[in-house]
Design brief:
With 176 residues, the protein is mainly α. The protein is built from seven helices and four strands. A hairpin with a 4-residue loop joins strand 3 and strand 4. The N and C termini lie far apart (57 Å).
């Protein structure tokens, strides 16, 4: 597909009324081109328009990891996780502890606020993990509770981000 630059801007498709216009008319209107679409690997490279040509830049390992992190974060189902968490035995126990423990009350309140932010597209991963850790220290959660919480984290695409304190999944156990 041929792309055209308007006054040196990033090349794109021509507006529909100009698709069949002669090159002289396009030049008169401020268009240059055509420029072929850049060919690059978006996982490891980035195409940058210099104002006259495409430049292909190799991404650093740190940039690649950041892009992958953002991609995984965008696929996370915070809404589903929040709803399922509120129905879990672990959260029920934390909520019961909140009735008698100020720290558990603060943890549950902060967790709900952090999850609301996450549902709005602004997750505070460290804050959620800190709430989980504090709730774990304030509440007696069984291995079954932790396994249920771990399953929720995995099922809703949050395994890369959220940790279940004090829980080792069966497949991750060390075997001799």
């Amino acid at each position: 597909m041929a792309l055209f630059s308007y006054h040196g801007g990033i090349p794109s498709s021509l507006p529909l009324p100009l698709v069949d216009a002669p090159e002289s008319k396009l030049t008169e209107l401020g268009y240059s081109g055509p420029f072929p679409a850049p060919v690059f690997n978006p996982r490891t490279q980035q195409a940058r328009w210099t104002g006259a040509e495409w430049e292909i830049i190799a991404l650093t390992e740190e940039q690649i990891q950041q892009i992958e992190y953002v991609r995984l974060l965008s696929r996370a189902d915070w809404q589903g996780f929040s709803e399922a968490l509120m129905m879990s035995s672990a959260y029920s126990k934390a909520r019961a502890a909140a009735a008698t423990s100020l720290q558990a009350n603060v943890d549950c309140t902060e967790l709900i606020a952090f999850l609301a932010d996450a549902r709005a597209g602004k997750p505070h991963i460290d804050g959620i993990n800190a709430c989980f850790a504090s709730i774990d220290s304030e509440t007696v959660l069984t291995e079954e509770d932790k396994a249920q919480l771990y399953k929720l984290v995995q099922d809703f695409g949050l395994g890369t981000f959220l940790l279940v304190p004090g829980y080792t999944p069966p497949e991750a156990e060390f075997r001799v």
